[in-house]
Every structure is written in structure tokens, then in C-alpha cells.
Amino acid sequence: MLSPLSDPVFRRLFAAQVTSLVGTGLATVALALLVYDLTGGDAGVTLGVLLALKMVIYVALAPVIGAAVERLPRRRVLIALDIARAAIVLGLPFATDVWHVFALFLLLHLCATGFTPIFQATIPDVLPDEATYTKALSLSRLAYDIENLASPSLAAAALLILSYDALFAANAVRFAVSALLVAGCILPQPKADTRQRPFRERVTTGARIYLATPRLRALFALSLAVSAAGSMAIVNTVILVRDRLGGSESDVALLMAAVGGGSMVGALILPRLLDRIPERTTMLAGGGLLCVALLGGVWSQSFIALATLWTAIGFATALVMTPSGRLLRRSADERDRPAVFTAQFAFSHVCWLVAYPTAGFLGRLDDTAIAFAGLAALAVAGTIAAIRAWPAGEPGALEHDHPELEHDHLHVHDSHHQHAHEGWRGRSRTAIRTLMARCAIAMSS
Q1: Which of 118, 192, 408, 414 has its Cα between 20 and 30 A from that of 25?
Q2: pLDDT value for 376
């Protein structure tokens, strides 16, 4: 599991990720307290709107920002975005009105929209061996789960002696540390993209590759199942524990910890599991387990039953999401890989944008069984769509062809899509010969 850390570049990038995750957890707590100070009883509504806007930014602007920075050196982009985020976070304690918080929050996540896909797309280039890359994915998943468990405790301990403004300062420091760690790396730069493509085409490249690849369409569908189950746990745990079971705040924390614990177990076993079982089987099994867990919630009547279901949700989420990096890596060459990772970033957040309000609306109903049933229907639909989209025995490289086209404009092609040309201009010779043959056949008939 720890073998990827022997690579010095990955070790620094992983340290940057861990630093970033801890800072994010602290900032989340600080943001909630800041919004409460500014809005009082409307804090819940304000936070809900902020999180919804964050999802909209991720969905709508991720491809645009990805296309804008794709030809820039990765290391400089990552460092610049970290420095920008540090400056933005330092401005949050000085916010005196809600619109200040909205503006800074949106700028912060604009930077995250550019940073995260580039960071994720860099790891496969750093670790080209698939087995080592799989272990790195599991390490990243473990770091994410540990952060979910540890950050609230760290924030609570810090707030015993510091104000929440200090949490924003700590978050700015972690961005600076992340920038220093990235600056100390020599990141592999993908092959230069010599294709002369207009900006609009670069914006849509990732989505077009993503939606044209069966296994990635299946990943999109499974992301809907993950978001359905995850939103049930994130949004409605407090309602289930406090209103339905009459539990305490500690019970809420324990139930949320069950999700993280299940996910950690899944991340630990996945490297060996994927050596024996294909990704398709593993990920579809995870989708099926998400459906079973949500359907089981319809009849669950005790804390132990819910804890078991929440653990299953965490475990199944790891089965689905941890191998996703392998699918993305396999589905694009080096030049298009950042665009494909950006597409996954955007499409997965589309699913959360659907699931979060659905879970919130259904959770407000008197019968929580309806919430479980409604979100189970989403998960079942996603899993069935994934089974239909992802053919069994699909090869790693999919054969495809490109029909001959006629061109009247100046154009170039990469080596994979090369065809004969009449110099730089005019129609290709192949297209002319095809057109002449068709005319001859029509005249003879």
C-alpha cells in the first residue's frame, strides 16, 4: 500500500494532498461559524445556497477553466492556484457582509475547479505502472476518509484556544505549504499538443471523449448511485438519529464515522482485489451494494442497523470511486487526459447537484422510508444504466475508425488520425477519389 511513497514526486504530491484536505476540513467549520455570525438563524439556508453554487461552478466552469490552462506548465498553474487560494482565504475573516462571503467563496472554488483535475491527471504520469497507480488511488481515498474523521476533532480542539479566524489563517498556511511542496517537484509534462483547435473545441474535448467511451458512461451512471447514497448519509443522518431514533449528537458523529470506516476498509482491500477481479465486476458490485443498503434503510429500525447500512455505503463507495482513476487513465492519451479528468470532475458533480436537493426534500417528509426509497430508485437507475452501458469483456483499447472527410480549410492532424492530403490546402486525395468513384457508379447505373 505504501510503495507509491517511494517515488519522491508522488510523495510530495501526496503530502500536498493531505495538507490540503486537513485545511479544507478546518475551513468548512470556520465558514459555518462565520456565516452564523453574519446571518444568525438563516445560516443553514445561506450555507445551502453556497454549497449549491459551488456545485454549479464545478459543473459549468470546470471544462472552460481546464481548456484555458491546458497549454500552460502544470507546476506553475498548480502553484499559482494555491497562492491565489491562500490570499482569498486570508480575506474571509475580514468579510463584514454576506455578499463578501459569497464573492470570496466563489473565487476560492473557481481556483479549486482548475486545481483538482490537473492534480488528479498528473498522478498517472508520475506513476505509469498501473499496480502502483492503483495503490496510490487507495492511499488518496484513505487520506480523504481520515480527513473526514479527523478534521471535526481537530477543529474542535483548535477552537478551545483560538477563534475561528485562526482556522482561516491555518487554511491559508496549508495552501502555502501545498504550493511549496509542488514547487519542489519536477512534474512530468505531457507531449506537446500540436493540434490547432479552437477554444470551443478544447472546452468540449473531455466531454466528447467521456460520453463516447462505454466504460466512462458507466462511471457517470455509477456516480449517480454513489451520490444518491452519499447524499442520504450526509443530509439526513441528523434527522434519522435525532428525530427517528431519539439519539444524541454523539450518535450522529458515530454514524457519520461508520461511512468513513467502511470506505477505509474498501480502500485497503482494493489493490489486491483488483489484481484478481476486473474493474467492471468490482464497480458494478459496489453499485449493487449501494442499492441494497438504501433499500435496507426502508425497514431499518435501530441504530445498529443504520450503522451497518452506513458502513456498507462507505465500503461500496470505495469500490466504485477508487478504481475510477484507472478507467480515466486508460481512456485517453497524455494530451487529452486532463480534459477527461475534468469531464469526470464536472459530471460527478452533476450527480451530486441532483442528489443533494432530492435527499433534502425527501428527508423533510414525515416518513423517512420515502427518502430511502426515492434515493434507492436513483441508485438502481444508475446501476442498471451502468450495466447496460459497459459491455462485459470490454478491451482496454477500443477499436474505432474515422470516416474520410473532405476539407476546404487549412487543417492538421495528429499521427493517430493522419490521412493523405493534397498539400496543406484543398480536399484530401482520398476524399476526391471516393467522390469520383461515387460519380462513376451513379453514371453507370
Answers
A1: 118
A2: 93
Question: What is this structure's pTM?
Answer: 0.74
User: Which residue, 82, 112, 85, 95, is CA-closest to 46?
Assistant: 95
Kindly tell me the sign of the dihedral angle through the C-alpha atoms of 226, 229, 233, 235.
positive
Phi, psi for residue 63 in degrees, rounded to 5: -65, -35
Distance (Å, whole) CA 17 – CA 185: 14
Query: How far apart (Å, rounded) are the C-alpha atoms in residues 368 and 232?
Result: 10
How far is it, in rounded angstroms, from Cα 236 to Cα 321?
A: 22
First to last CA, the chain: 69
Give the Cα separation of 344 and 265 in Å (integer).
24
Tally of residues, the chain: 445
SS3 labels along the chain: CCHHHHCHHHHHHHHHHHHHHHHHHHHHHHHHHHHHHHHHHHHHHHHHHHHHHHHHHHHHHHHHHHHHHCCCCHHHHHHHHHHHHHHHHHHHHHCCCHHHHHHHHHHHHHHHHHHHHHHHHHHHHHCCCHHHHHHHHHHHHHHHHHHHHHHHHHHHHHHCCCCHHHHHHHHHHHHHHHHHHHHCCCCCCCCCCCCCCCHHHHHHHHHHHHHHCHHHHHHHHHHHHHHHHHHHHHHHHHHHHHHHCCCCHHHHHHHHHHHHHHHHHHHHHHHHHHHHCCHHHHHHHHHHHHHHHHHHHCCCCCHHHHHHHHHHHHHHHHHHHCCHHHHHHHCCCCCCHHHHHHHHHHHHHHHHHHHHHHHHHHHCCCCHHHHHHHHHHHHHHHHHHHHHHCCCCCCCCCCCCCCCCCCCCCCCCCHHHCCCCCCCCCCCHHHHHHHHHHHHHHHHC
Nearest alpha-carbon partner for 309 in 368, 391, 390, 392: 368
Residue 70 has, within 13 A of its CA and on its CB side, a CA count of 31
Mean pLDDT split into 10-residue runs, the chain, 445 residues: 78 80 69 75 66 80 77 83 87 84 84 79 80 79 70 67 78 85 76 64 81 90 92 79 72 78 85 86 93 90 88 91 85 79 85 84 80 92 93 61 42 43 41 47 45
Q: What is the pLDDT of residue 94?
A: 86
